[in-house]
């Protein structure tokens, strides 16, 4: 359809009209290379300026001579266009002062988290109601005071509202009921007063009962009064946690309590509730934790025999009718904590309660009227604490030494004080103490579980308040359980692809409801990367993780902040927690990665630093800017993690082997399948080179390039983690091993998509990249049989216009695809890739390997055409597997391939021209505008062309959105 000769043909024939045919194309290319002009809008910049001023100059790294969205400021996340601030995450940043009204100017904010800034005070400004797009608002562990403004009801996009641990006062506004998308409501541990808002009585006709999408009501530790609104026990509610403890609530527990069929944790304790316990609790199948203690509940002890999932049950300190220990207790096989102090119990203690068929660990029946003899001889091995103090027990037999038994205040001890003392003294240790001596730098600790190495490393440390456990004593068993749960909970977090091993989690506890949790970095690693530290904090703090045994908690992080920039990006799909609880929680953006501030200026690496380029990065940023890998979207994996996901590099996980080393498949903790390239000992690069490589790779994102997910650099290992490509290589398909039908259309489409990938590297990557090893085994097929170019392991940064040409010291590439000009002159340009791609095209058409039976496909094709003429020559060379093809198109493709393998690089087309030609060969292209001559095309046509052929310059893909747009203008 192209009537004139292609440009390379003209140039080859000495016509001095080079590229004239592609004038428009050239114009478009320059358009593509135009500077990214998007800048954060002034309104947002001004708002950030006002915030910094109000926060005592913090964050001090915000530099108003740069652009917040373009230079990725600390804690600032932006939208795709890089003009609006959408996320502001400044957790534990030592912010002071107040939240100024200008926060309301950041009208595109979706996620605001200022938690753990203990000096951030003042009240919530009413202007916060301007943030109509806000989906997550977390200001926890700060010093906010005053009322929650009624205009909070305007934030109708809100799904998370977390204001725990401030000094907020006044009532909870009834307008809260307008937040129909609210999933998480936490205003606990404030000084809120008044009645819980109820639509049936409130002026606005809305209340908590309207929050039918909410799963969490955390209202505890306030001074709420009045009765519990019956309206919230309507069948529309989805609640799983209802935490009302430590308030001043009165009246009955509504009989409709059984309507909340999804309930898992209910706290009614420490209020002034009265009346009898409704039978509804017993029908809530998923109820694991029930606290009714410390009220004035009366009548019969409730029959909970059908609540068979109960793990923790607290019934003590009420006014229940005097009764024996209920027999149904031994039916609750999952129960591990039973607390019935001051519950008016009398009679014997059945040994069944402690039997080996039960799971019980902690039992407390203190201050009752129990009598007879306690027999623990058949106690289950998990039993740790039995508190029977202040009863009428006269006898005691046989207890395992692992159990602490408190018998004080019983007649038995009158005669056996010595034994009672020793039984009580069997207190297990509560502290994970290190056997190592010596001290560590600030924030660094010796992991007590690694006392063989005695190395200091920096854990993420949090102070935890447990909401659903109120263990009378936390001892060994519970610590281990908790540590295991933290490790597995964090490993399953949707935010991170990190596997946490049990030894990395150390819990120490001082009272029944508080503990410190230290999450140590993997073995042999001194500290978490700031990004991982931020993610760990975020995951624990915001309860993205559920812990079946230890229940929900609030966590305040302590220690000097990790000096991290948190960069924010798009939606994480498959957010596991959300799915597990059956509601799509992560409607919007979540924190994906925290990265270092990316500086543009580079410094010459000092030789010394070059040996340990990761040190500065793994450490907390003191090492200077030059050594900080400029990663965009790729993350660090620990060796441990890689081992786990490849079955310790088992043979069954091997999927290939190349010059670089072996390739393994593996599944990340998230379930995502990946391909892991592990450098063989011969391929190991210097650390500085490896760093350069991952920086380069992580910057490149295009739908026709295999995406880098991350890397591992530990214990002398160098590994790259890529997205998994299920349909193998182009080479495999051509040799028939994949069973993929390689008809004409498929071959053309694979040629097209791989050409686009390469063209992207040449013209849109910044800096432009020369692949240097284009070959059919580096072109992979995804699940939709779209070709993606892989393996930039040998890539080089292309020479730039301002003449900074990289001098390659050593010719690299694969024999058969290698550009002879590059081989001879050592001069590397994009045209070397064009050459290799020409060989791939010939391969696609002939099915032959470039060098097969001692014959070079390029030469064979040229000879065939010279001897037999175009049509015959092509027919004699064509892949016998290619049964049907349009001869004319095939001829054109051969011409194109031969143009690509011209001896002189200048005579070869550019990849953009290659794309254009392939495009013209596929039938569908006839309808598209042709860019010929000097015709003027509309901007729309050009954009359409760009999108179809080159990928839009703003071709954001998935979660890389935020990083992608950071391509810097030249
Ligand atoms: C809240 O729920 C009540 C009862 O279903 C209803 O009458 C009222 O209109 C709702 N209010 C809002 C704001 O949705
Ligand atoms: C009970 O929990 C299970 C497991 O989490 C869940 O699949 C089920 O939907 C829950 N039942 C109700 C009624 O919420
Ligand atoms: C427990 O469930 C059984 C079977 O559904 C029922 O007959 C019984 O009344 C229930 N017991 C209580 C106390 O709810």
Task: Explain this structure.
The chain is α/β, with parallel strands linked by helices and 970 residues long. Among the domains are: 114 residues; 108 residues, Phosphorylase Kinase, domain 1 (2-Layer Sandwich); 233 residues, Transferase(Phosphotransferase), domain 1 (Orthogonal Bundle), CATH 1.10.510. Helix content is 22%, strand content 20%. Strands 1-2-4-6-8-10-12-14-16-18-20-22-24-26-28 form a 15-stranded mixed beta sheet. A 7-stranded parallel beta sheet has the order 7-9-11-13-15-17-19, with no helix packed on it. The protein starts with 6 loop residues before the first helix and ends in a 6-residue tail after the last helix.
Q: Specify the CATH homologous superfamily of the domain at 732-964.
A: Transferase(Phosphotransferase) domain 1
Measured distance between first and last alpha carbons: 37 Å
CATH architecture of the domain at 732-964: Orthogonal Bundle
Strand content: 15-25%
Instruction: Report the sheet with the most strands, covering strand number, pairing sense and barrel closure.
Output: 15 strands, mixed
Helix proportion: 10-25%
> Spans with pLDDT under 50 lasting ≥5 residues?
1-37, 470-476, 563-630, 799-809, 924-970
Stated plainly, the CATH topology of the domain at 732-964 is called Transferase(Phosphotransferase), domain 1
Q: Which structural class is indicated by helix and strand composition?
A: alpha/beta
Cα radius of gyration in angstroms: 34 Å
**CATH class call of the domain at 732-964:** Mainly Alpha
Strands across the major sheet, in which order? Answer: 1-2-4-6-8-10-12-14-16-18-20-22-24-26-28
Number of strands: 48
Shape: elongated
Tally of contiguous helical segments: 22
What small molecules accompany the polymer chains?
Answer: 2-acetamido-2-deoxy-beta-D-glucopyranose
Transmembrane segments: 577-598
Keywords: ATP-binding, Glycoprotein, Kinase, Leucine-rich repeat, Membrane, Nucleotide-binding, Receptor, Repeat, Serine/threonine-protein kinase, Signal, Transferase, Transmembrane, Transmembrane helix
Subcellular location: Membrane
Main location: membrane
